[in-house]
Structure formats: C-alpha cells, structure tokens
Amino acid sequence: MVPPTEAPSRTENRPARKRKTRGEGQWALGYREPLNANERSKKDDNPLNVRQRIETIYAHRGFDSIDPADLRGRFRWMGLYTQRAPGIPGARTGTIEPEELDDRYFMLRVRVDGGALTTEQLRTIGEISQTYARDTADITDRQNVQLHWVRIEDMPTIWQKLEAVGLYTTEACGDCPRVILGSPVAGIAADEIVDGTPAIREIAEKYIGDQSLSNLPRKYKTAISGSPRWDTVPETNDISFVGVEHPEHGPGFDLWVGGGLSTNPKLAVRLGAWVPLEEVAEVWNAVTQLFRDYGYRRLRNRARLKFLVADWGAEKFRDVLENEYLGRKLLDGPAPETPTGPRDHLGVHPQRDGNFYVGVKSAAGRVSGSTLVEAAKAAERVGSRRVRTTVEQNLLVLDVPESEVDTLVSDLAKLGLSADPSPWRRHVMACTGIEFCKLAIVETKQRAIDLIEDLERRLADIQGDVDNPVTINLNGCPNACARTQVADIGLKGQMVPDGEGNQVEGFQVHLGGGLGQDAGFGRKIRGHKVISAELGDYVERLVRRYLDQREAGERFAQ
Ligand code: SF4
C-alpha cells in the first residue's frame, strides 16, 4: 500500500538545511547552563546518586518522604517510574497535576542486556514478582521485563535478590544508555554473521552506571546484532551495530546512528563505517560521548540523537566522531543485505551445535511472575539453562535436545506460551498503556489481548491465507513505545469522536509502515480513526480487503 523506502545510504544522506544560530543547549558549544527542569535536575545531582537515597532514606521512611525531583526524575535511572493512579481517564492525561497522576506504587524495569537470561535469573524475576509485584510481569519490546505494584519499601530487598543472580535495574530508564538490544540467537544461529555478545558484555560492564555517561540529553538506545535477520530493529535505535561481512576484513558490524520513533520518527542512517567486534565498545563510547556533548538539550522534544544526525548528515557526523572522539579513521564498509524473512525466531529451530531453540509467544507481552517461574522450570526439566527475550515480546528457550522439543513445546503451551501462534497472536504488540502508564490516553494491553482473541474467531476461515504477516502495534499515546509507525497497522491512542458527540477511547491509524525491505513509516490516513470498541470490525475489514485485492506475494506494506 505504501512504496518501500530504501534504508538511507551514506551518500544519499544530505545535511539538512542550516538551522538557526541560537544555541540548542549543546555542551560542546558552550551552552552549559541548565535550560529546562530536566537539565537542571540532572545538573543538581547526578541521577545515579538516587540509589543511595532510596536505600538509606526512602525505603525506610516511605513514599511520602520522597523528594519530588527524585520521584519524577532521578528514580528513572534506577528503572523506577510511578504508576498511573487508577481511575483517571485518558482524556485528562496531560491536563492535570503530576501528583494527581502518581500512584504510590512503581513500575520496575529489569534490564536484560542482549535479552540474555539464565533460567535462574528468569525464575528470580518471577519470584520477585510473586512476592513484591502482585504477580505482574510484561516482556517489553526492548527485551526487558517490567513489574508493577512495587513499593519503595521493598526496593533494597529486590535489588539484593536481582544482584545475587547478576541482574540489575541501573539505567533501565532515564536520559542515559538504556538496555542494549542483542540478537536472541547470538552464538547459536547457523546463519549468524558475527556474535555480538562480547561487545554487549563489555559495554555493560564498562559504561552502564558510569557517571560520565549518565547525563545524556535524552534516552539513548543501542542495538548490537550479528544476525542477518536484523532481529534488534536496528532501524529504530539511536546507535546500531548491524552484522556484515567485509570483503577484506571478514565479519564485523555496519554502524548506524540516529534512528528513533515517537513524534518526528526517523530511520537510522548508515555512516558507511565497518567496525570489528573488538572495537565495538570503543566506537559505542565515542558516539555516546559525541551525543552527550553535541546533543540538543534546550528542548526535550529535540533532544534525541536523531535530530543532531538529521541536521549534520552522516558525513559530518562521521568526521566529528573520527576527528574529535576516536582520533583515527574508521574503515569504510559495505551495506548489509536487507533481510526478507521473519525476524521473530518463533517456533522450533536447529542450533549450530545440534540442539534446538524454541521461540514462544505470549499475548502482547503480558505474562506473570508465576508464568516466568514455570517457564524456567519447564526449560530446566529438558536440560536448558538459557532463555532469551526478543523485541517482539517473545521468549526463547535455548539448548533443547531434539528428543525433548515436543515436551517443552507442550509444557510452554500449557502456560499460554505458544510456539505456533495464530498470525494475529504472532504479530500483535502493545505498549503498557493506561493501566499503568501516566502518559497513556487509552488502554492497550488488554485491548490487544481481546483483539487477538477476537481476530482468531473472526478470521478463522482465512487464517491459512495470511502467508505474509500483518503486524498490528497498539500504542497508548504518540510516544510510539510499541513502534506505531513501522507496523502494517499502527495504532496511536487518542480520544476520538464516537459519532454521537462523545469523545471516547480510540486510535489514529497509521497504515503500511514496515522495516527491512518495506522500511518506511505508515501513513496517517485522513479519517482513519477507530474507536476502541470497534477495533475488531476495523481490522477484519482491512485484512479481508488486503487478501482480496493483493497481487500474488504482495505484502501489506506494499
Ligand atoms: Fe506509555 Fe505512550 Fe509509551 Fe504506551 S506509547 S507506554 S502510553 S508513553
């Protein structure tokens, strides 16, 4: 439906028109004064210092003792957000005082770099959820696990339990290097170009929690994958290392910068540079420092790296990176081949060591602590000790002997984790939404779960015809945490008219977005707004029309 957009190349990447001379808050140009409340808060006290206050003061004196600047700012650096107070309708989001929106409980994001967990770690997260988070758990589309209903009093114990198994929540949120996405099949996939795991480990060990990188202009998202499937959505990250074979130097990574969705979405651009595995951490550090120093801090809505990249263009960005930060030239390298197949690793697949991995799907990432505990036990029963999360909110169990595959598939299915989901279960994603998120305008998680079940009933007759996936991403507001703009059917939560003069929960529809071959943003079609209650009708009409009218092999995004 939408012409495919080629991933921009270095040469195609023109520097944007000259911007006004007024400072944008770039430290490197001398604009170091605090320019807005967020910048002031970060300058007043390094956000990483909040951990100590939580452990020594807030956890003992309770919620009411928390300094508002910590509560609504620095807590994020420890993976903590206040939940949305129950019962406040989405129509009021953005119009009321922050304290009215704050619940006395927290969302806690557990950082899972590379999506890599041992079964012991998975079980620990599940048990923490059972004890301290009312058995809630969501697998996020950035490979993290989020818990809800967490009390500040329990945080020291929760950290103790997490850290005892090598997990942490540091910089899971905030203006800092967030979780590092990694291929869920790193080190095991037969088609892997290069295993990025050592680079992910090195970055996490050296730089996460480093105070010199903990005050960035805005959040900073990293993806490192040597899979030819681009299974870390590299197009949408601030910095991505994408596996590619150099004709002379062998396997390594192509360096991309400046991707990001939200409002003003942009696809990452290639710098045309090839980086060997052992230099990834150094180059990552240099790009991160460049962003820290030259990133725009004056306006929050222009502070992501994508705005700097758009203004400078790839050539200038690479020049500054090489000359001011690396002190050497990077090698030129080829573009990786754009993948065509699925990226989600669902189902049963052979590993290169003769074992198998099993990828399973929950409904829109919603699981529970008990499900995670039982999934860890099921994996251990068949001899596995490794699991992975994916950017499609899936779970993978690695290292399964062939003789145990069926047992595992059946045990996971009993937990609601399917290795062979319907096309709708497979391709529907949802962000946190109004249940817990303070920015949300509409419900998303339960809406997605209901939609999946609705579509499985409505479209049972044509299920076998859906050979090309139709992705449906539900987002509770314009922030696009569940990647609104790159779905076939991207749904952006907003209040919409119901035809009888009322404003009710619904979605603005973006049609025909995609990644890879179909990389480009969905079009907002005038009049394509749907009220939440009629979502099933709407999607059914769209899908049937697509199947009726498509040419042989034509994808939805075409
Ligand atoms: Fe919250 Fe909006 Fe992100 Fe959904 S898209 S999690 S509603 S900020």
TrEMBL record:
Highest taxon of the lineage: Bacteria
Keywords: 4Fe-4S, Heme, Iron, Iron-sulfur, Metal-binding, Oxidoreductase, Thioether bond
Gene3D superfamilies from the UniProt entry: 3.90.480.20, Sulfite Reductase Hemoprotein, domain 1 (3.30.413.10)
Enzyme Commission number(s): 1.8.7.1
A UniProt-annotated Pfam family: NIR_SIR
PROSITE patterns: NIR_SIR
GO molecular function, one term: sulfite reductase (ferredoxin) activity
Name this polypeptide is given: assimilatory sulfite reductase (ferredoxin)
Species whose genome carries this gene: Saccharopolyspora rosea
